[in-house]
């Protein structure tokens, strides 16, 4: 008689898989993908290293899933900001601020998502992540053009420029300052950094000077 996996066994496997993902996420949040060694993840998840490879074909597949999880959380926050009531330019500014402020509050994870050297499978997810942001901004820009509160322009190109500008502006400040991966941004510099990024992005988008 062929073996049939029970529902209880499927649930147990799903829970084990989720714990592996959660522990990997914690490792990346703490020290980037470079610190997420399989032996460390296995120890945190209280499983054998071989168990990880029963759930994921490779380390790269595990990292790609964690990257998708982390980036979706960030994209969702920007989508929420753009979905609020009010003038589209104010919503765009709020969304850009969300992007920058969340990155600064979680600098290690933000660096990992934006600029840390990663495997090709994870890099593919990074490109999807940027496209997801750009698609959200493009929709808002088109709305602004239609409502005549944003000058007529190539909304697709402008949205890509926004993503590139804000991401590249954060690379330096978020870059690990020491070999152990610590990131240091002085408290007094945080507001100035965010305001400078937002001002540049909004002036480029609208042509208005505050």
Automatic annotation (TrEMBL):
Residue range(s) of DNA binding per entry: 37-56
Domain HTH tetR-type intervals: 14-74
SUPFAM superfamilies according to UniProt: Homeodomain-like, Tetracyclin repressor-like, C-terminal domain
UniProt keyword Aminoacyl-tRNA synthetase, yes or no: no
Keyword entries, A-Z: DNA-binding
PANTHER family according to UniProt: HTH-TYPE TRANSCRIPTIONAL REGULATOR PKSA (PTHR30055:SF226), HTH-TYPE TRANSCRIPTIONAL REGULATOR RUTR (PTHR30055)
Protein name according to UniProt: TetR/AcrR family transcriptional regulator
């Amino acid at each position: 008689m062929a073996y049939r996996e029970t529902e209880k066994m499927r649930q147990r496997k799903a829970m084990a898989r989720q714990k592996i993902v959660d522990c990997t996420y914690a490792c990346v949040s703490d020290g980037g993908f470079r610190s997420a060694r399989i032996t460390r993840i296995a120890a945190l998840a209280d499983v054998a290293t071989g168990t990880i490879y029963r759930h994921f074909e490779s380390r790269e597949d595990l990292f790609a899933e964690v990257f998708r999880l982390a980036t979706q959380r960030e994209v969702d926050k920007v989508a929420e900001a753009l979905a609020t009531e009010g003038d589209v330019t104010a919503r765009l500014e709020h969304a850009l601020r969300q992007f920058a402020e969340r990155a600064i509050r979680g600098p290690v994870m933000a660096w990992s998502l934006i600029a840390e050297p990663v495997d090709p499978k994870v890099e593919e997810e990074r490109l999807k992540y940027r496209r997801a942001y750009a698609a959200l901004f493009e929709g808002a820009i088109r709305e602004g053009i239609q409502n005549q509160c944003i000058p007529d322009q190539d909304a697709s190109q402008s949205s890509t420029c926004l993503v590139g500008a804000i991401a590249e502006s954060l690379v330096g400040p978020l870059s690990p300052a020491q070999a152990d991966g610590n990131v240091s941004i002085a408290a007094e510099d945080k507001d100035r950094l965010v305001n400078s990024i937002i001002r540049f992005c909004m002036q480029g988008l609208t042509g208005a000077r505050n």
